[in-house]
Amino acid sequence: MDTSYKTFIFLLLFIKPLTVYGFFAWGPCPSIPLDIEKYVSSKSDYFLYSAGNFRAIDYLGTWYGITKTIDFPWSSGNCTQTLYYIRDDKRVAVLNSEIINGNNVSMLGEVFVDTNIPGQLYPKFFRYAPLGDYKVVHTDYTRTALVFTCRSFGIFHWKYVWVIARDFNIEEVPGYYKIIESLGIPISKLVKTNHEGC
Ligand SMILES: *[C@@H]1O[C@H](CO)[C@@H](O)[C@H](O)[C@H]1NC(C)=O
Ligand SMILES: *[C@@H]1O[C@H](CO)[C@@H](O)[C@H](O)[C@H]1NC(C)=O
């Protein structure tokens, strides 16, 4: 067996389990569709396209995790929630928390808003960590938001989506499913966040 063939087999073995989760894909990161309105019902005022006129101030406050790509790396617990608020020094802080085995596990960070790219935020949780990628694809500010992150390694990329809401009892948000699929993530790879007894 020649070496490159072995390498290929190795890559397949290595990558196969990852593709099962739907967050690995070949090629560069997908771009967020510009004609996003066509993905959601145009008759509904439920969804507003945020990327054209993202209002960071209206995005502040508490959001609850509703559904996310399976094996989402940053939250494996229950009762996931995020609070965005303005600190005394006028910077935006983010407090992520979740319940893991009965314990409240939280992480405090900062958020930078990109004024050139609407909906583009960069969270930072550790002093020396690089800025994270956080794209608000869609939001109506008062009910739901669809967030996407992607890291490109040239020939392949990793990506995650998650849906958050102001109220964790919200029903499904199928209006987002077509957008999620257009970003290359099958709906079957989404998992709901458990909010029982939170
Ligand atoms: C965790 O504790 C923080 C600080 O007391 C609180 O604001 C947050 O709501 C708690 N998170 C959960 C998931 O209960
Ligand atoms: C989440 O809640 C379920 C059901 O209450 C429980 O079985 C599970 O262990 C919890 N998960 C974590 C990470 O605490």
End-to-end gap: 55 Å
Q: Bound small molecules, which ones?
A: 2-acetamido-2-deoxy-beta-D-glucopyranose
CATH topology: Lipocalin
Which CATH architecture?
A: Beta Barrel
Task: Kindly name the structural category.
Answer: mainly beta
**Helicity level, as a percent range?**
10-25%
Number of strands: 10
The number of domains is 1
Oligomer: single chain
Strand content: 35-45%
Number of H/I helices:
3
The run of helices and strands is HEHEEEEEEEEHE
The spatial strand order of the largest sheet comes to 2-3-4-5-6-7-8-9
Transmembrane segments: 7-26
Keywords: Disulfide bond, Membrane, Transmembrane, Transmembrane helix
Protein name: Lipocalin/cytosolic fatty-acid binding domain-containing protein
Pfam family, one: Lipocalin
Description of the molecule:
- One of its GO terms (cellular component) is cytoplasm.
- This is Lipocalin/cytosolic fatty-acid binding domain-containing protein.
- InterPro entries: Calycin, Invtbrt_color, Lipocln_cytosolic_FA-bd_dom.
- This protein has 198 residues and is mainly beta.
- It has a single domain, classed as Lipocalin, CATH 2.40.128.20.
- It has three helices and ten strands; from the N terminus they run αβαββββββββαβ.
- It has helices at 3-19, 56-59, 177-182; strands at 24-26, 61-69, 78-86, 92-100, 103-113, 120-124, 134-139, 144-152, 156-165, 190-192.
- The chain has an eight-stranded antiparallel β-barrel with strand order 2-3-4-5-6-7-8-9.
- The protein binds 2-acetamido-2-deoxy-beta-D-glucopyranose (2 copies).
- Residues 79, 81, 97-99, 104, 106 line the site of one 2-acetamido-2-deoxy-beta-D-glucopyranose (NAG).
